[in-house]
Amino acid sequence: MSAVFHQTLAIAWGKVCFCFNADGELVEISLRTRRTVGCSGTRPAGTPSSSSLQRWVGAVEQGKAAAFPGPWRIPGDTEFRRNIYRAVAAIPAGKYLSYGEVAAQAGSPRAARAVGSAMAQNPLPLLIPCHRVWASNGLGGFTGGLKLKRAILAAEGHFLGD
Question: What order do you get walking across the sheet with 5-11 strand by strand?
Fold first, then answer.
């Protein structure tokens, strides 16, 4: 289902755009948005309010775990991809796993590269915290860029040198 409603918020780290389908379900969180702050489309029933989204993002910015205020589901077009996202969604704030550790939890211990691919295509960063998945030799990449990854990790208690 494609997005019919977009809500963009200004946050400490830039802008974040939430995209919802016609059922009010969250389908994408974009950290690299050029959208102006505000809304576009008609807000479907069940979509969280602007203030609810702002409170949730505020908790994320402070490194606190908070339940997303609206409907969403684990994405993925295969069971393996959904298993990857489930494993990543379960990583608590302040902790991290390597791509290989996530692959093992998803049932394929030799599929670290597939985990990297899934993280690069994660449609729900922050909610499925791909910033908590690191390469075996360091941080690895991040959709929002390494500067943002470092900022999110610092908010969660990881203080990394440059």
Answer: 26-30, 14-20, 5-11, 38-40
